[in-house]
Amino acid sequence: MTKDQWGALQGELSDTIGENNYKTWIEPIDFHGMEPGGVAVFNVPTNFFGSYVSQNYGDILLAKLSLFGNEVRRLKFQVANVDNRPAQAPRPQPTAASTPAPQQADVLPGAPLDGRFTFDSFIVGKPNELAHAAARRVAEGGVVTFNPLFLYGGVGLGKTHLMHAIAWELSRSRPDLNVLYLSAEQFMYRFVQALRERRMMDFKELFRSVDVLMVDDVQFIAGKDSTQEEFFHTFNALVDQNKQIIISADRAPDEIKDLENRIRSRLQSGLVVDLHPTDYELRLGILQAKLQTYREQYPTLEIGEGILEFLAHRISTNVRVLEGALTRLFAFASLVGQPITMELTQDCLADVLRASDRKISIDEIQRRVAEHYHIRLSDLIGPKRVRNFARPRQVAMYLCKQLTARSLPEIGRRFGGRDHTTVMHGVKRIEELRSQDSQIADDVELLRRSLEA
Ligand SMILES: Nc1ncnc2c1ncn2[C@@H]1O[C@H](COP(=O)(O)OP(=O)(O)OP(=O)(O)O)[C@@H](O)[C@H]1O
Question: Are residues 367 and 440 in the same domain?
């Protein structure tokens, strides 16, 4: 590609991404030239600027550049000489004061990284300490000791946060590494696009040239055969080269349905760590950290004693909901110009608090199921395998899986220390029976309704 071609392309980019984005992000960058291996080099005002353009517009740029043939395979952003910089480089959004400016000069286009999701802002507690320690280890970028790192846990428990934190940390400390973060959905999208455009070689080369690959929400590729196939090959090629892979999912590898066995076993072959549901201390820690940032944003706003503790007690669904509640509370209090009292909190967050009230616990499910089948709770949980106890036990396990965010191992623990495979078997059995046995189907439905009421 030549400078003239780049000039011609700029007008088109403005149409594609909108004039404002174009003026802010594309106009200030300068095509520097080509490097061997199909690398198009651009001068950018700052490292962060390059990273932002790469993460947000890299795909579009590559697609447009491919109009000039297969010559451009990768993008490289380098900080221009001071003389070349525009007088005022725009600040990328979103950023946080503590966001480390990534130093990477050679970045592969992936999904945008959230500037707030760093290790600094990640609060560590019992439920996530192992996942955090593993993420930290990987972020050191040293010798690959476990591959892949598989992080899993329920909604909003910090999987994406940890992955972004690894990416930020690596881009700061190991700018020589090519780090690629994307969701499994984006992986599929790119794969399909490459197929359509007959650019599979480029696709393969791109993915095989990364040093660290992070794929978020891998459960998405379950049931999508050709994407799984390609993912498997990418995975193997990188592992063979001893390149680090980090995967996240909303459940453990053996709980992801419609995943090929060879992929499942590959995913299990490294370190599998579970982000447990939050406990009170972790929730309080997260709220206290958030409060610090709100104090800066709303310096005059007062918050009453015990409010954070109240929220940490009452909102135990997930961290996203917890953060959202605090955000709403501060916004509301500042709008009405009142201090945050208990009364205002209950008023402002009535819906969130009500929703949390309805949270169903394993204890409650066990109690209701035992009542329903007229058996003792100790028999429901205990070791006896007679049918009269085993079937209700399976129903209870099934309901725990459906109605709570608990993982299979945890459910197993709460049923007299049973193994998670026993729980999985029980859940499957009830799933099957529901379509064959109307009595079971009715029981399950009745119990579900009464628990959710
Ligand atoms: N330990 C933590 N410390 C600080 N913030 C946290 C922590 N855990 C989660 N969060 C925050 O909670 C929100 C949700 O986290 P995140 O998006 O990482 O969840 P997730 O596990 O990827 O969920 P999903 O399955 O919905 O994608 C984010 O704003 C994140 O910063």
Answer: yes
The alpha carbon of 413 and the centre of ligand 1 are apart by a number of angstroms equal to 25
Q: Is the predicted pLDDT of residue 87 greater than 70, yes or no?
A: no
Q: Which of 13-22, 31-40, 411-420 has the lowest mean pLDDT?
A: 13-22
pTM: 0.63
How far, in Å, is the centroid of ligand 1 from the Cα of 158?
Answer: 3
Q: Which of 78-82, 249-253, 323-327 has the lowest mean pLDDT?
A: 78-82
Query: Are 268 and 408 in a shared domain?
Result: no
Asked if 304 contacts 294 with a C-beta cutoff of 8 angstroms, the reply is no
CB atoms within 10 A of CB 424: 18
For residue 52, give the nearest of 141, 158, 168 by alpha carbon: 168
Residues 317 and 408 in one domain: no
120 CA to centre of ligand 1 in angstroms: 14
Pocket flag, ligand 1, residue 128 (CB < 6 Å): yes
Q: Which of 77, 78, 80, 71 is nearest to 36 (CA)?
A: 71
Residue type, 15: D
185 lines ligand 1 (CB under 6 A): no
Q: How many domains does the chain have?
A: 4
Q: Do 219 and 251 touch, CB atoms closer than 8 A?
A: yes
What pLDDT does residue 277 have?
85
Which residue among 182, 286, 315, 319 has the greatest number of ligand 1 atoms within 8 angstroms of its CB, and so is best to mutate? Answer: 319
Q: Model ipTM?
A: 0.98
Rounded distance between C-alpha atoms, residue 387 and residue 410, angstroms = 23
Domain check: are 258 and 378 in the same one? no
Contact (CB, 8 A) for 15 and 7:
no
Structure tokens at 243: 């390149």
pLDDT in tens, 131-164: 999 999 999 988 888 999 999 998 899 999 999 9
Q: Could you tell me if 71 and 34 are in contact, meaning their C-beta atoms sit under 8 angstroms apart? A: yes
End position of a domain, from candidates 308, 336, 357? 357
Q: Which residues contact 418 (CB under 8 A, 6 or more apart)?
A: 412
Distance CA 428, CA 444 (A): 14
